[in-house]
Predict the structure of VOC family protein.
Amino acid sequence: MTKLPKLKLHHVNIASTNVPEMDRFYREVLGLGDEDPAELPPIASDNEVVGKVAFVTDGDIQMHLSQKDVLSSFKTGKLVNPLERGHIAYRTDDIAAFKAHLDAQGVPYADWGNVAVAGWQQIFFYDPEGTIIEVHQVGDG
């Protein structure tokens, strides 16, 4: 069996119809704050794919508060739609090996490449209950 690349929880994405209100809630009610700007994902220049987004952190894990868009899969041509329900995201240093692992396990995934975040290679897939999971690698991948 091939050794599975290490994954580290990076962020939780919550889809919302009111990003500014969610941002206010997580800042004022939960006391979350701003991330170091160097740690934020460089959103791709085509903001039509991503829509409104806010970022907050507890100092370790980011939360991405994204504009809900049930039509994003039509706009991007990708099967897994991370802007409808939100998702859990893990970072890896070997996305190719992780994709090979998913292939060996028979788990289908949507390969977003760097469509949404410049410089991040992203894949999305579902767990058995339909939770969307992202795995990404910073860099070429």
